[in-house]
Amino acid sequence: MKIQPVKIILINSANCQYAEFDLSDSLHLVALNNRGKTSIINTLQFLYIDSFKEINLGYTLDQTWKHYFPALGSYILFELNTLTGRKVFGMSATGLGSQPEKFLLDGEFSSSDFIQNITGKLLPKKPDTLFPDVASKLISRNLEPKHHRALLRPFSTKQNPAGLGLVGDSRDYRLFKRLFRQLLQLKGITIKDLKAQIEQVNHSVMEKEQKINVQREFSEPYERVKKDQDSLRRLQDNQETIERVVDLTEEMVRRQGKLVNYHLKSTPLFLKEMEMLEETLETQLSQQSRAKDQLPEIKLAKEDKQQQISREDQRLGVINNDIARYEKLTRECNEIVVELEQQKLANLEQERDDLQGQLYNVRNEDLSALEQSLSFKQEKLTKTQLQLNNLSSTLYVQLKAILTPEQLLRLYQITNSDIWDLLNEKQFTLHDADKLQAFLQQQLGDANGSDIDFPGLTLDLRAISGAGLHQLGNPEFLEKQVQKLTAETAQLSDKITAIREQASIKTRIDDIKQRIELISAVIKKHQEWQAAEVDYMKWLEQSEMIMATIAQHKQEMDAYDEKAYDLRQTVKQLAENVKTSRQHIEVLNGQKRWIENHPPESDWSNIELDTSALSFEQLYDNYRAQTETISHEKQTVTQSLLRLRDRFINLTGLTDVDAIRFLRDQLDAIPEKEKSINDEWKRIFTSFAAHCRGIIDSVDAIDSYLADLNRLLGRQTISNLQSIKIVIGRNEWYRRIQTIREWKENDLPLFGGLDESSIDDLLKSIKPLLEKVNITVADLYDLVLQVVDTHGNEKQYQSLDLESNGTSITVKTIIFISMINQAVSGKKNIGETIRLPFYVDEIDSLDDANAQNIHDIALNLGLIPIFASPKGSGICKRLYQLENNAIGKLSVRQKAKGSGKLLLIQPTFEHVS
């Protein structure tokens, strides 16, 4: 979508009852000369130029209003394609000869909004009827020039919410307006006009002052310079004192203003901070009280925990003692072999019993009797042993084998023991044992009887013991008797020994008892150790649980200690804070009293300061510092002014304030005076050089611009020409200015060092310029149109009017569209999204080829070609014919699409009052 005007609508305006022209593509107005073609196209200035004073329609403003807005109900309207959709920009008459009113409607143009049917007659609405009817579409009325300019520029939500974008991001709207008027009047453009327009296009890159007034540069007399120099020297001699006085005065005024502002804001700030301090103090006291109240609770809780720890420690001590005892017992019992200890115990008990028996057996014995008995027993033992040793050879032994024990007993009873002693092997011989056995058995008879009968002899055997038989002849008896005697001998010997060693035995018994006790204790300890194993495991578990409990209690104790410590620190800090807050309150009251006792003076001006970041203490410090500094500065300024009044007569009659203001002005003028005095001659010549450099640079900028313009011209096809370009020519004035331009500031001597010959040399270069008085950029160059025809012939023109009118119009079109593109260049250029109307009058004076070429070039460059001539052509997309109707108004007919017929544009009015 192109941003452009799409329709021009005239209602009772420009000698038209109703006219509507479609600008969506090229159009051709056909009418006889002086019928109003140019007047109609010139209405585009109302759209693109914001100020009525800058519109050039060929009439005065009063004549313009009468021609375009002859009565209420006269309208000039433009239907627009914009960045925000279709809009209608219009102007309505406000009264005969009065300035019209600008307005803007939303949406497409509709004739019914502006024309009403009254009893079959079509008449334009008057503004008092129109605006209420289109209230829903009305965006704005009574548009001022600034609002009009805003409509032409691009839409932007923040910067330009009303923008329509018709001229894009124009960098120089004023230049655009001049060029646009020129674009509507190309036919009469001259080379002088082209130079002026090119200079305006390049104004932003050229020197602001494009003219040198030579006479003025040499008009200052030397006497004034000398007078100014004396005044300057006196001022410089006292510059340090004046600067100090001025600076002190300015600083003092600023301080006074600050002091007034501080004083005004001190009371609210004091009340605010005092309220905050009192609230802070109350909060601190409350926090301190609450913190103190928590300390006894923590102390009680800590004591309770300490008691719990003590109880647990006691339990742990008991259990640990049991564990230690058991572990010690374990170490001891691991080395005990119970079975050996029990065997030792049994042996020791047996030994003890034996020793005790020995002592018991001899407790009532007589040692001498025991020794006699021992001697007897030993003798008897010896005898018995001897008898036993000899028993094998006795008769008794021989008879024992053949007799029963009873028979042997009877035989023994009836014989004499002595006989048996004699009957040894040497004394008898046993020839036949059987016979002897039979005889003895017969003779001895029954051994049970107490009597025995021999022939002639009866023996009573009851009184005779048979024991001697065993003693004399029974080996077993004798062996037993030997054993018995041996035992009795040993027993008697032991007894005797025991009697002799009673003390030693008792000692041994005591030792054995102690050993028995020790071994019993060891066995008991081992038994206790085995029995205590289950308790030991239980003790270990209890010990761990108790230690965990104690650790937990200690942690809680530590937490209580930390909490108590924090609370004590908090109480201490709060006490410090309370003390500090009370001190701050006292300090604040003291500072407030000092400020109240040192108020600012009533004639001091207030300087608004941002004190939002200041505390009252900072404000007081600033206030006091400012007060003390002001007092010191007042004294210093008064003393310095007394000295300066004696040196400067101009201070007579002036107040201190006015005197200081005068001195400050003189002080500020020192740099300018130094420049104007010390560098006056140098300034004259160097300023000429600078101006000349600026003008030369401006010409160079134009030359650079023409290079771009020539490249654009070179891309266009123009009938009958091979190429065309604009050449800049440097003339004599350019060369003179170029000479002065070469001067350098450092090449010129300082003021006072110029001699007559130096001045004469410089004046020789300036003299021709002095005679001319004023030098402008336009004086320094000439523009020449250089043309090469199809045969290669080159020709130069001093104007834009070539032999071919079509070629002239083409060249002008290309030149001016280039310049206008630069004027509106921003994010978008003409031809990309923006299209501008372009007007060529008397197009029929050109041949068809040139007219077609102009038409095509204009379209390519982003223009909307509008041709006008008495005769029509088929070049443009639309054709409009203007004719006078019966009442002397212009009727507009448009060539219908797809046919060669001209149809009258409706609606038309029979009469407009």
UniProtKB/TrEMBL annotation:
<feature type="coiled-coil region">
    <location>
        <begin position="550"/>
        <end position="577"/>
    </location>
</feature>
<feature type="coiled-coil region">
    <location>
        <begin position="191"/>
        <end position="294"/>
    </location>
</feature>
<keyword id="KW-0175">Coiled coil</keyword>
<feature type="coiled-coil region">
    <location>
        <begin position="323"/>
        <end position="365"/>
    </location>
</feature>
<protein>
    <submittedName>
        <fullName>Uncharacterized protein</fullName>
    </submittedName>
</protein>
